[in-house]
Structures are given as C-alpha cells and as structure tokens.
Design a protein that fits this description.
Strand 3, helix 4 and strand 4 form a beta-alpha-beta unit. The chain is globular, with a radius of gyration of 20 Å. It is built from eleven helices and 15 strands. By secondary structure, the chain is α/β, with parallel strands linked by helices.
C-alpha cells in the first residue's frame, strides 16, 4: 500500500520510520509546512540515508500522487485539508481528531468520504487508545460495569516541542494565563469524543452529563526545563479532567497529569511511587486495574531525542493503515475495524 506522510513534526517523523519498516507499506510522498524542507529527501529529514522521496510544500503535488492512504499529522487539524485528501481518493489516518465524531461534526467529512470512496480513521494513544480503546477492551472481561477510567501521568519536560509547551500549553506563564488559555478547548475536542465512545458502547444513560476541569500547580523555586527556567509562582504542572455523570455517579473519567518534574510544586503534586505511566481502570464484576509502562522515556534527555509516547502514537496510525484501506468508505472508528496488530521485526519474518 502506497502512503503519503502529511507533516514531519515528532509524530510525522516517527510515522515515516514506521512506514519504511512496515512490510506492507511504501512511502511515496510527504507534505511539509517549512520551505526549508521543500525538495529535501525524506530520509534526510528523519536522519536516515536518502530514500528517493522528496518532501514538498505543494498541496497540488500531493493530491496528484498515486497513493492509497495519508497519515495526517499536523499540529492543528484542518477539516478542509482532510476533506480534500478524502475527495482525492486517499484514505486518511490521523492522530489529531475524528476518533468518534458526532453525526453533525462528522457530516462534511462523511460526505467527502462518499465522494472519494475513501475512509477516515482517528487513532493514536491519548486520545485514540488509552482513553477509549483500552477501557473498552478490558471491560469485555467484566459484567455490570459501573465506571471506566483512562489516565496519563507524564513529565512534560520530555516533550520536545518548546513553542507548544510554552505558548499553547502555557507552561512557564502565570496561572491565569494557563487557566484562560486554549489548551482545555483544544484537548476537549478529542477527549470528549473518547468519553462519548465509552458511554455509548457500554450502554450508559444517554442523559449522562459531561463535565470538564483544569487545575494548575506553580513553582515554589526555580525549575530548570527545556523551555527555560520556570520561576516561582509560574505554571509548572497541569491537570485536565473529563468526567461523565449519570445522576451523582461518575461513570467515565479521562485525565492527563503533566508535570515539570516532581520537585518545587505547589500543590505538591507527584507521580507517586509508580512513577510516570498510563492507567486503565474498569469497575464491574470483576474489576480490573492496569498500569502501562514503556510509553514514557527513562530520562528527560532520552525523551528529547526520541519520546516513546510520540512513537507509539505514530505507530498506532501506521499499523492501522492496512485495516483502514480494507474498510468500507466512511468515518470508521475502533468499533468498526477488526483487531489492529503490529508486524514482526524484519530480522524475524
């Protein structure tokens, strides 16, 4: 299957690596935002030997390619771009949206899928995995489910996107700037879809109320970080929570906990003895509690070179491609696709 990569940030570069290493996929094109990357061999962009595929800033050049699928991974999604790709005959797999869109929100892209005979699939790990796929998967081992949860605990110093961390996430600024910033709204677009997928699939009341919340922690002493020193009184930790209630009972909880380390914070948030991790919980008969390690780097320095959470997000997209290409046209979620699996290491095939 012939694949185009759209954007070459952290996820995009990792997706290119995964496509090149996948036995059923071939990279045939790459769109980039930066003029400096235009005409550059994609292998050079990701730090490998040249592969004979040149990056382009031209949307028209991309739309003219002969390809089966696009991994669409910009920082901010553009619905019109995705619609154009779908209408042009490309299936689209993306970690930036459309995990479980409402009929109204998905209608324009569903129309583009119908026009192009194509498929759109939103995936990743958070949202796009840990927040709906994994709670639903483990719920299959329980009856009478009363609550499911997916939660991230990460050191945000390992996220190598300093402009995003400072100017969009609002770390290192005053608390009122973070609380009034765009991050809760940007995150809610995906995480509320995760909540709704859990509610609908598990059969909780359609009248469930979804509530969102945000908290910040500030530095109590200077904290050295990749975005510079965070001075006392400025934001060094954030929590975002999305909860669904049936009456007074919380039935779904999704949360992210992002800290600039575990020292000099007020409130004195920590990751606890388990350290950085992802957690999945199902309360039912019987209940399940799962801790996932490995998607966070061992050190800040390792994370800035290659963050396994970013890689996992990209690989989940890439591994989905054969299943998405085989699917019927339309917006297809995890609920519509078969079990998605990785592929063996080249030395073991």
């Amino acid at each position: 299957m012939r694949v185009i990569q759209w954007a070459t940030g952290g996820v995009g570069r990792a997706a290119i690596e995964a496509v090149l290493d996948h036995p059923e996929l071939e990279l045939v094109g790459c769109w980039v935002h930066s003029e400096a990357k235009h005409g550059v061999d994609v292998g050079t962009i990701i730090g490998r030997e040249p592969i004979g595929v040149l990056a382009t800033t031209s949307v028209d050049e991309v739309l003219a390619l002969d390809a089966d699928a696009v991994v669409y991974a910009p920082l901010i999604p553009d619905r019109d771009e995705v619609a154009a790709l779908l209408r042009a005959g490309f299936d689209v797999v993306t970690p930036v949206g459309w995990f479980y869109p409402s009929e109204k929100d998905g209608a324009p892209l569903a129309a583009a899928c119908a026009e192009g005979g194509t498929t759109l699939h939103g995936t990743g790990i958070n949202p796009g995995g840990i927040t709906e796929l994994h709670p639903l998967m483990f719920s299959a081992l329980s009856a009478k489910v009363t609550f499911v949860r997916g939660e991230e605990f990460s050191d945000i110093r390992t996220y190598d996107a300093p402009d995003v961390v400072r100017h969009i996430m609002m770390f290192g600024g005053p608390p009122e700037e973070a609380m009034g910033g765009p991050m809760l709204g940007l995150l809610s677009g995906g995480f509320i879809q995760s909540v709704r997928m859990c509610l609908d699939t598990l059969g909780f009341s359609p009248d469930a109320e979804i509530r969102t919340s945000q908290e910040v922690a500030v530095a109590t002493a200077p904290i050295s970080t990749p975005i510079g020193v965070i001075e006392p009184g400025l934001v060094a930790g954030q929590r975002f929570v999305w909860e669904a209630y049936v009456g007074e009972a919380c039935v779904v909880r999704i949360a992210v906990n992002w800290l600039m380390g575990e020292e000099h914070l007020s409130p004195a948030w920590t990751f606890g003895p388990e350290g950085e991790r992802f957690e999945v919980e199902v309360q039912g008969d019987p209940s399940a509690f799962v801790t996932i390690k490995g998607w966070q780097p061992e050190t800040v320095e390792e994370g800035l070179v290659r963050n396994p959470g970013i890689v996992a997000t990209a690989v989940h997209c890439v591994n989905s491609i054969p299943y998405v290409v085989a699917a019927d046209p339309g917006i297809r979620t995890y609920l519509d696709l078969p079990l998605i699996a990785g592929r063996a290491h080249p030395d073991l095939r």
